[in-house]
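Thought: the user wants the 3D structure for the chain below. I'll pass the sequence to the structure tool as-is, report back what it returns, then summarize two notable features.
Action: structure_tool
Action Input:
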Amino acid sequence: MRKLFICLFISLFISSSFGQIDEVRRITKTLCSPEFHGRGYVNGGDSIAADFIVNEFKQIGLKPFKKDFLQHFTLGINTFPKRMEVNMSGKKLIPGVHFLVDPSSNTNVDIWKPKLITAAIALNKEQLIAEIKNILAGKTYNSIAFDFAGLPADTMKLLGGIKEQVAELLPVIEITSSKFTWSVGRDQLKHALIQVQDSIFQDGKKWTINIEAKFIENYQSQNVIAYIPSKNRKAKTIVFTAHYDHLGRMGKDTYFPGGNDNASGTAMLISMAMYFKAHPSDCNIIFIAFAGEEAGLVGSEYFVNHPTFKLKKIAFLVNLDIMGSGEEGITVVNATAYEKEFLELQKINDESKLLTLVKKRGQTQNSDHYWFSTKGVPAFFIYTQGPNKNYHDIFDTFENLSFKEYDDITTLLVKFVDGFVEVKNK
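Observation:
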């Protein structure tokens, strides 16, 4: 009888509850707004986002662990707070479209006269050293432009680290034909390093560079932790996680909205909190929004080394990252490690006819589930697949998200938790 009631209840939930899609859109749009500065380390974007999430949790009625929703930690970070200007012979280049500054780049205000260096020369250690010595000794050139456009992946792998090594000696331009993908710098090079699209680069031109970089040795950021306790004192604990941070600003005028990665996952995390607060589970449900993921999973690593509750109490953890599409299904990381739970996900999906694909993937260290896995916590990292390929670029905006499979994904998660409780509590 109880099982029949649960099925009927879930059916009603599926048909009516996910008017929450409007809330998810509101939350995602807010997190992507310029006022949040890309949720990075310029203008306190990460702290603005954390305060917003705390307020959402409070309005839902979630409780903090102990007295505070926040868990603070520090990290070293390279930032670009103000000047970000690159001109090629008077032509002003557009940040994020024509060029990117390397996340570990240093400050530079100068006129560059770069010597064009091919990949063949870069791969020849003696030849490259000779070129660098000639530049340092002469007056014709004062920087290097590596032409790496159109190279195959195996060649780029061989070239890995060369431009950063040279940037300890000279300013560097990397010419590329690949899609721009930015990241977060945890250190700072001696000189500036920029990446330029081959479609814009012209050999023999003078470059006017005005870049301001600021390295912050002990930047304070924070995880946001909240929970819904079960009335059952012996209840299992389920944890939902998502990172709320993104790449922040590259100068005062350019920011990375991080719509899919990971405002969408943060919005889904808050959405799951709304559901489980309105429909209490037999489990304790904990929600953690991590900072520092883009800087190398820093927030989640700090948490597992300074947990606010015993990690061994976690029956299962679900990490939500890149939740803004789903037209091509979802991928489940750690599926090979937790085959039984993965088969249950597939069964729910097949029986309820939800997503086009629930794809299996092995263990990786590409999101916040990783540090929990190293501590023996059973965990999945779930992300969506779809036509939106904007990733770590300025085009990952709220407007480019479809949320096509939001209802189906959240239904899958709710049923997974419910089934998990039934199985584990038998």
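Final Answer: Structure generated. The chain has two domains: 2-76+217-424, 83-211. Residues 1-18 have pLDDT under 50 and may be disordered.
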